[in-house]
TrEMBL record:
Residues 1-23 form the signal peptide. InterPro entries: Beta_helix, Para_beta_helix_rpt-2, PbH1, Pectin_lyas_fold, Pectin_lyase_fold/virulence. PANTHER family: RIGHT HANDED BETA HELIX DOMAIN-CONTAINING PROTEIN, SECRETED PROTEIN-RELATED. This is Right-handed parallel beta-helix repeat-containing protein. SUPFAM superfamilies: Pectin lyase-like. Keywords: Signal. Gene3D superfamilies: Single-stranded right-handed beta-helix, Pectin lyase-like. Residues 264-410 form the Right handed beta helix domain. It comes from the Bacteria. It comes from Pelomonas caseinilytica.
Length: 586
């Protein structure tokens, strides 16, 4: 028998078990492909060689390390798409594009299915066993029928609403058929709960987390009687019927609830690059892998769930994406060890309510991460928090504009801890420009409505808040039952108190001996606005991301003429991060 040395056997084992499988490129082109092809060529090459025609064909594949899924640019693909990365090999997968991929020609994933034409009165009634979450007429989302037609239905005073399993008896709902409706209950200033109504007497499919009480806000959807005098749609869960009221000549399509792209497989890494995701029925991108997840140069619009949701990853990189009009969070992480969110433009997180308002936490929600870096993003028009973090986070040089538009007890940048003993690595919030924090107070369960620039809530500790600019908020920087934080060198010009430090000594216990440090902040109370300054020292209207970063900033009291650079009532403040200079003018 031949002699095998231990070193040779070790080398042989390493080669056998560490060498990657042969990587494969799979191509898809609805215009030029065929699902009978093998997908291995960009163009038809005979003998069934050529691109697939549909995304569904990809779901039949077992994907391995190094494989690439490539979509032909300039084409639209009917989703959703669910891929599984082989658990045994783990490995890496790329989902990208090929062909002429100039801006505006990126592959578009779209789950919409055509509906029959409405009748001459613009009415369509159609049996639909699968729940519908979005309806479009000529590429424009139709509003879901709801009750009340505008604003919430407030639970009146002296109403017994303590039973979490059913709706209270309300005069506004008397005699109305409710079975099959969907309840959206704003049970706290900051929280919306979704439930199915099972019976006409208001029984719910599962108990509410928080009891209804006077001044709680309710919205109901899903019944035909909620379509009144206009265009809209409802899907009735009890009859499983879709009803659409629109223009007679409208081209209709519907979306059912599911992620547009879902990639699963306990082991593995993923890169998604250069695609467009439109009209998702759930999350636009939902990834559950334990490796490195990279989402870059992607456009997401009109999603009924989150824009990007990543769970369980060792590292998540979300960079240079554009996310606009999503019903929940634009970027959401769950149990991710390290998240990096850089250079993204996020608009309308939580504001897209074509199917009714939904529970939302933050435009960029990194609370369930062990560590995070969130920098150089522009976040505009958020329903709730703009950016939400846990610990070991660096939130730097972001622009957070118009936060808290639908919910209250809220901030442009927010953090908290589980309890007084939750001591994790320090966090930094620095160089951010925050403009406009004010929200919906139609549901008012407490005495105060908090619309804050930077909010360090319950038990937040070791957070360094430095060199931020906060303008046009109800409150500037609020520390609530927080300890051992530093607030240094910030510029705060807000309608209410520039800074608040409120603590309950009983809650903080021994940690009450670690006070918060407030130093060298420039503070103003009143109506102020933010402007950029040109080379001649003239202040102009607030601009977008490039202008803020490239030009000096000027904080102006509203109602006054823009002062010259050398005006006596202007105070030069320390430079804020990458911004050239900040001047506050009274």
């Amino acid at each position: 028998m031949p002699f095998w040395s231990p070193g040779f056997l070790l080398a042989l084992g390493l080669n056998l078990f560490s060498a990657p499988a042969l990587a494969t490129d799979y191509h898809v082109s609805p215009a030029n492909g065929d699902d009978r092809y093998d997908g291995l060529a960009q163009a038809t090459a005979g003998d069934r060689r050529g691109p697939f025609a549909s995304l569904r064909r990809l779901e039949q594949l077992r994907l391995h390390h190094g494989d690439r899924v490539l979509l032909h640019c300039g084409e639209r693909y009917t989703g959703p798409l669910r891929l599984t990365l082989d658990d045994r090999s783990g490995g890496e997968l790329l989902i990208g594009s090929y062909g002429d991929c100039q801006p505006g020609r990126e592959p578009v994933l779209d789950p919409r299915q055509p509906l029959p034409a409405p009748n001459r009165d613009g009415l369509l009634e159609l049996a639909m066993p699968t729940p519908v979450v979005q309806v479009f007429a000529n590429d424009e989302p139709l509003t879901v029928g709801r009750f009340p037609a505008a604003g919430p239905l407030l639970v009146p005073d002296n109403t017994d609403a303590s039973d979490k399993r059913r709706l209270p008896t309300l005069a506004a709902l008397a005699g109305k058929p409710l079975a099959g409706a969907r309840l959206l209950a704003r049970t706290e200033e900051w929280y919306i709960e979704e439930r199915a109504v099972l019976s006409d007497d208001g029984q719910l499919d599962k108990p509410l987390e928080y009891a209804l009480r006077p001044r709680t806000g309710l919205v109901l959807t899903g019944k035909r009687w909620m379509l009144k005098g206009g265009r809209g749609w409802v899907w009735d869960a009890s009859s499983q019927q879709l009803t659409v009221q629109t223009a007679p000549d409208a081209r209709l399509s519907a979306v059912t609830g599911a992620p547009l792209l879902a990639v699963v497989g306990g082991r593995g890494s993923l890169t998604v690059r250069g695609l467009v995701f439109d009209a998702a029925g759930g999350d636009a991108i939902n990834v559950r892998l334990d490796g490195v997840v990279t989402i870059e140069d992607v456009t997401i619009r009109r999603a009924y769930g989150n824009g990007i949701a990543v769970a369980g990853a060792r590292q998540a990189l979300v960079q240079r994406n554009r996310i606009e009009d999503v019903a929940q969070d634009a970027v959401f992480f769950a149990e991710v060890r390290r998240a990096e969110v850089r250079g993204n433009t996020v608009t309308g997180a939580g504001m897209y309510v074509s199917g009714g308002p939904r529970s939302v936490l933050a435009a960029i929600n990194a609370h369930r991460t062990d560590a995070a870096v969130i920098e150089d993003n522009e976040v505009d028009r958020s329903a709730y928090h703009g950016i939400r973090i846990a610990a070991a986070a660096q939130v730097r040089n972001n622009q957070v504009l118009r936060s808290c538009l639908r919910l209250s007890d809220c901030a442009a940048i927010y953090t908290w801890r589980r309890n007084v003993d939750d001591r994790r690595p320090p966090s930094e919030i620095s160089g951010n420009v925050i403009v406009g924090v004010a929200g919906d107070t139609s549901v008012k369960l407490g005495v105060n409505d908090y619309f804050v620039g930077i909010y360090l809530d319950e038990f937040a500790n070791d957070v360094h808040v430095e060199r931020n600019v906060i303008v046009d908020a109800n409150q500037g920087i609020y520390l609530h039952n927080a300890y051992g934080n530093s607030v240094v060198g910030n510029i705060v010009a807000v309608r209410g108190k520039p800074k608040i430090d409120a603590a309950d000594a009983k809650k903080l216990g021994a940690m009450a001996e670690r006070p918060n440090d407030w130093n060298d902040n420039l503070e103003r109370s009143g109506n102020y606005q933010l402007a950029t300054v040109d080379d001649a020292g003239r202040a102009g209207a607030r601009r977008g991301a490039p202008s803020l970063a490239a030009r000096p900033l000027r904080v102006l009291r509203s109602g006054t003429a823009a002062p010259d650079r050398d005006a006596a009532r202007c105070t030069e403040a320390p430079a804020v991060a990458t911004y050239a200079a900040v001047t506050v003018c009274d």
